[in-house]
Amino acid sequence: xxxxxxxxxxxxxxxxxxxxxxxxxxxxxxxxxxxxxxxxxxxxxxxxxxxxxxxxxxxxxxxxxxxxxxxxxxxxxxxxxxxxxxxxxxxx
Length: 92
Fold this sequence. Notes:
Blueprint: E1 2-13, E2 22-32, E3 39-49, H1 53-62, E4 68-74, E5 77-80
Antiparallel strand pairs: 1-2, 1-4, 2-3, 4-5
């Protein structure tokens, strides 16, 4: 099944005791649940260090509003798959 990206964003956070910034990419999708037929929303946030800044920006550009993502749903549990995601990203 397919999910549609509703919103994606990139934000940078810094802490006082760490000289490196953390780049956070947030992707929010909407999909129709196959069993109930209800429209649902889901979001996932990825945290990357300063050295992966270019990857974070590219991820936001790749998943703009309206993009389609594969969705996995089973009962009350669901998740969306980010195609060609970096190996080091923990999706689940």
